[in-house]
Amino acid sequence: MSSAAPRTAGQDHLWSVDEHLEDILATVRPLEPIELQLLDAQGCVLVEDVTVPVSLPPFDNSSMDGYAVRVADVAGASEEFPAVLDVVGDVAAGHSELLHVGPGQAARIMTGAPLPPGAETVVPVEWTDGGLGEGPVSSMRARSLAPEGAEGHVHVYRSAEARAHVRAQGSDVRAGDRALDAGTVLGPPQIALLAAIGRGTVRVRPRPRVVVMSTGSELVPPDESLGTGQIYDSNSFALTAAARDAGAIAYRVGAVADDAETLRSTIEDQLVRADLMVTTGGVSVGAYDVVKEALSSVGDEDEPGSGVDFRKLAMQPGKPQGFGTVGPDHTPLLALPGNPVSSYVSFELFVRPAIRTLMGLDDVHRPRTRATLTADKALTSPKGRRQFLRGMYADGAVTPVGGAGSHLVAALARADALIVVPEDVESVEPGTEVEVVLLG
Predict the structure, then answer these.
(1) Which of 388, 337, 381 has the alpha carbon at shortest distance from 366?
(2) In the beta sheet, which residues pair with residue 372?
(3) How far, in Å, CA of 308 to CA of 325, rounded?
(4) What are phi and psi of 71, to 5 degrees?
(5) What local confidence, expressed as pLDDT, does residue 46 receive?
(6) Does residue 239 carry a pLDDT above 60?
(7) Of 25, 71, 77, 126, whose CB neighbour count within 10 A is largest?
(8) What are the DSSP calls for 23-70, one per residue?
(9) Average pLDDT over the chain, rounded to whole?
(10) CA 126, CA 38: separation in Å to the nearest integer?
């Protein structure tokens, strides 16, 4: 899961965004592959190429309900001069015994049924009288209602070219072809293909298990009444949802009070189901920032190479950050700030790439593009900080949403992009081209 230990630096060292991210990605390693049943593998990443063992379709079959016939027997057929053929029986999907179609004969055939020996093409039932002798029909009568339709005669009113309405064996994929490449994320279409070629299990990297917990004695779960000085816990819900959106199996832990021992104990209890842990809150410089107190020395004595390093980053929002590994398995832990916007921006920049790395993906970052800034006035940014502002992106333009405050959750809910202002830029005029991180 993790191999290299996180780097440490002096307390006065101001980490860049890139340095912090590089340290995380150098520490986190993809999860070990396992063999999973198809439905359990949804959302996982293949670790090996999958080769087709049997062609799709595995045999020539009809793409229509109709009649399997010989081309010569329906040549020149019309409504005025129909071809009249003897019906020798039914060919239904799944039937193993195939009829033989000889000269002057037809077999009633269902969609997906194998083309019987002797037949060269399929005439749709709409081109026939359906064996009723009353002119063209629109559908085939159910066998249970009219078993006599599988015998007698059928009038065919149109000719058909060879192999018309026939799905050729191997026309989808052929035996020996590569069905899926290693590195493919398994969604519903990929799982359908695996099932279609007979693969019941597949070797993948499992979806990472991410435990999310928020800290703060002021936090109250939604649906409960707020007391004086209390607020609702939104961070743990936002980050759990974000972890699931990134591809993880995420577990939300209720808010932990501002007590270092309680937090340490909770983290230890959660390690059994975590490939990655995320905390939010308690990483700044206040007297009640218990995450630093609880984790600064975790693992230093009992687990060499473990421990969480707390840092200051040259970014806004999200200056205070923590990263390290905890527990006997050196589980990666990212400690994010407590302000809602700070925690969410930090997740997108640092936690999401860590999750995608655990999954074994090559491209772990959100897509980025360039866009023209649309705003009423210039954007300002603190010198020496890389600022990430919420924005709405459309048609090559991006518009700021809300202010720079790290508590503005309503503005975050409207944003689908982050506007990036580099460290050496203090003002961005409207009409300027800026870098944009696309969130949707």
Answers:
(1) 388
(2) 397, 433
(3) 6
(4) -60, -45
(5) 97
(6) yes
(7) 77
(8) HHHHHB-PPPPEEEETGGGTT-EESS-EE-SS-BSSS-EESSSEEEE-
(9) 89
(10) 39
Predicted pLDDT at 293: 76
* Digit-coded pLDDT (tens) for 296-339: 655 444 555 568 899 999 999 999 999 999 999 999 999 999 89
Length of the chain: 440
- In angstroms, the CA 313 to CA 21 distance is 11
Neighbours of 287 (CB within 10 A): 7
pLDDT confidence tier of residue 12, bands split at 50, 70 and 90: confident
Residue 188: other Cβ atoms inside 10 A:
8
The token pair that represents 116 in the structure block? 């019987």
Instruction: State how far the Cα of 155 lies from the Cα of 77, in Å rounded to an integer.
Output: 9
Q: What is residue 296's three-state secondary structure?
A: coil
Region 377-381 average pLDDT:
92
CA dihedral 286, 287, 290, 294 (to 10 degrees): 120
Q: What is the pLDDT of residue 300?
A: 46
Longest distance between any two alpha carbons in the chain, whole Å: 97
Amino acid of residue 298: V
Q: Is residue 9 scored above 70 in pLDDT?
A: no
